[in-house]
Amino acid sequence: MDLVYLYCHGERYNPPGASVSDPLLVLGSGESFTPQDVSGWSQLYDWPDPHWRDRPPLVVLNACHSGASLATTLADFVGVFTQTAGAAGVIATEVALEQKVAGLAMETFLTELVIPRISVGEAMRRMRWTLLKRGNLMGLAYSPYCAADLLLWPATTLQHRADEALSLDPWSYARP
């Protein structure tokens, strides 16, 4: 499996004229996206055929409330990434996190995940125990919405995929 990692801020916003709020991931000043945006990307743009269909990635949303699904929510990130965009799974939280804890949690998780034959479930367990040994329960805030036995692709394959991705023009996939 490949990996998509987003370290950002999770918020809620009310679309104009809507009586419900939607989740929002903020990447930077003026840069954000909603679950509806992800749905649009996967449906409206001509992504290359092998994009996510041949190698569905694990999407890590290291952001507050990124996995929250409320009765008043029109869409959520977990569902749109897995059901609409075709990701293999999502790692997300349903609560607010302190930034240092969020960084440590996912640094630990990813460090474990790159070890050959360590699955998402085992890497998650190890991350949680690492934080618990430090007296911090917030490792339990991360939920894996995927099969526990997912494995990362070998490092040589990942390097090849990274080189390939860097050579692509992201704007070449947009429809005129």
TrEMBL record:
Tell me which UniProt keywords the record has, alphabetically: Plasmid
The record's section on InterPro entries has:
CHAT_dom
Instruction: Give the superkingdom in one word.
Output: Bacteria
Domain (CHAT): residue spans on this chain = 2-135
Protein name as it appears in the record: CHAT domain-containing protein
Q: What is the protein's species of origin?
A: Rhodococcus opacus (Nocardia opaca)
